[in-house]
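Annex B.
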Amino acid sequence: MEKIVQLLESKGIRPTAMRLMTYKRLAELEVAISLGDLEKDFKISERSTLFRTMKTFEDKGIVHQIEDGTGVLKYALCEENCECEVGNDLHLHFHCSNCDETVCLTEHKIPQINLPEGYITEDINLVVKGVCEKCSRQSD
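Zinc uptake regulation protein ZUR: predicted structure tokens.
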């Protein structure tokens, strides 16, 4: 837990109990999670507190949002030293049509995209959809 405290403090975040529990839960997951699903993990938390925690984490570069085409925003922890900016540290996401989980494929970076003059990039999100490794092994 001390490592999480140090990480949060290094990002200028006061390590409250909710922030520590939220970070710990996100670190345990291997998939992205929606705010609603995360809320189910914390029965005694208020939705607004959890939302503010996630917003703080996103603003400080601890998590990033993923729009995976399901209509529900999901969150995942950023890699260490991630800047989560257009042109920096952008990676693929994979959404499984079988189990409905979304994962970060951090080793697969999105290449720099040069738009025509006059166009301004605000966000890039590349989601590959199909069947994940776990589900494809189950069908064997």
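DSSP finds five helices and six strands in the chain. The chain has one domain: 1-137. Further annotation is deferred to the next reporting cycle.
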